[in-house]
Design brief:
about 230 residues; Immunoglobulin-like; 2 domains; 1 helix; elongated
């Protein structure tokens, strides 16, 4: 008898727990609940126009957006329609929270954290730092175009010996489209024995606007080739 009662008791407990879990799941997936869509914001470039439209789902339109916490770059603002726009003057990383309210009664409110990076118009970084392999120096970089224009990109890599002699170990010329992020460019060549500093230069041109962007990388130390060709 006691075992039967205990069985009924635990069965009731498990049933109630299951109902609570279902209710909690329904609450978290309620399609009418207002929420901001999470997103990784596109990078911005100094002195270049920027536009990004925040989005929310659930709730009753129309929605109103606002800056809930933190600071935007000088020269940029967030409209009530959720459009972030303007022109940032300098590079930097800006973290802030965006809030949104709906038109329901009672009003629903949601807040989401975002991060905006303002980077140089043309950014170049090491992907594989230049290194010696036998009688060869190899490496690669990544380039990014954070502007609204396509670049006519020229990429040149020189290995400069201690006596000033420069040997080209990389060259490319191609269009780098607007918004391209971290496009990898490899380089490498066999070299005579010697000690070299590697210089990597990229030039992005926008002929129709008469604009030129430059970026440069250089090895911090001399790279010694000790094996002959």
């Amino acid at each position: 008898m006691l075992a039967c009662r205990l069985h009924r008791f635990f069965a009731a407990v498990f049933a109630i727990a299951a109902l609570l879990c279902v209710a909690a799941g329904q609450q978290t997936t309620d399609p009418t609940r207002l929420a901001l869509d999470p997103a990784s914001l596109p990078t911005a470039a100094p002195r270049h126009p920027y536009r990004y439209q925040f989005q929310a789902h659930g709730g009753i339109p129309p929605m109103k957006y606002y800056l809930a916490e933190g600071n935007l770059p000088t020269g940029m603002k967030l409209g009530e329609d959720g459009l972030l726009g303007g022109t940032a003057p300098t590079v930097g990383t800006f973290r802030f929270k965006v809030g949104v309210t709906d038109s329901g009664t009672p009003t629903q409110r949601a807040i989401q954290s975002f991060s905006l990076k303002v980077v140089p118009p043309m950014l170049m970084e090491w992907k594989r730092y230049a290194r010696v392999s036998n009688n060869r120096i190899d490496g690669s970089v990544v380039v990014s175009n954070s502007t609204e224009d396509d670049f006519d990109l020229t990429f040149v890599v020189l290995a400069v010996a201690e006596d000033g002699r420069a040997t080209a170990i990389g060259y490319q010329h191609f269009p780098l489209k607007s918004g391209v992020d971290s496009f990898e460019i490899p380089f490498g060549e066999t070299l005579p024995m010697g000690s070299y500093v590697v210089h990597v230069d990229a030039v992005g041109e926008v002929p129709e606007k008469d604009q030129i962007y430059r970026a440069r990388l250089q090895t911090k130390e001399n790279l010694a080739v000790t094996v002959g060709p």
